[in-house]
Amino acid sequence: MGTSSHTNSSFLTVLLQDHIGGLQVTPFPSKSLDPCYPIHGGLVVNLGDLLQLISNDKFKSITHRVVAKTVGPRISVACFLRPESENSQKLFGPIKELLLEENLQIYKETTMKAFLYRKFSLGLGGISALEHFKM
């Protein structure tokens, strides 16, 4: 089983993949998906959409996908780091200290609930929820 290309809605995703691998990433500024070869005992850290939003594009969310391999079973463990979303009215937006005259605010503030609703309504397929929150 694999996934189509997408970004993660979290701040960070930490991934432990086995020796079989299957993760492909789009290294900036490239548009192509390249293999992310597993390193024994190594962790892969993906930057997510929320980190891109609060950093005002200083850090970019990584587009990636997982492809199914034809050899043996594949095991990977992912940990998604994001705040609690249900019923929270806390607003997330660009960090004020990062905003300057030459670095204007790119994104509107949003709640996690609204952000995740937009993200999941778009589904996978490389479409970013961040576009909806641009100023």
From TrEMBL:
InterPro entries: IPNS-like_FE2OG_OXY (IPR044861), IPNS-like_sf (IPR027443), Iron_ascorbate_oxido_reductase (IPR050231), Oxoglu/Fe-dep_dioxygenase_dom (IPR005123). Residues 1-83 form the Fe2OG dioxygenase domain. Pfam families: 2OG-FeII_Oxy. SUPFAM superfamilies: Clavaminate synthase-like. This is Fe2OG dioxygenase domain-containing protein. The lineage of its organism: Eukaryota, Viridiplantae, Streptophyta, Embryophyta, Tracheophyta.
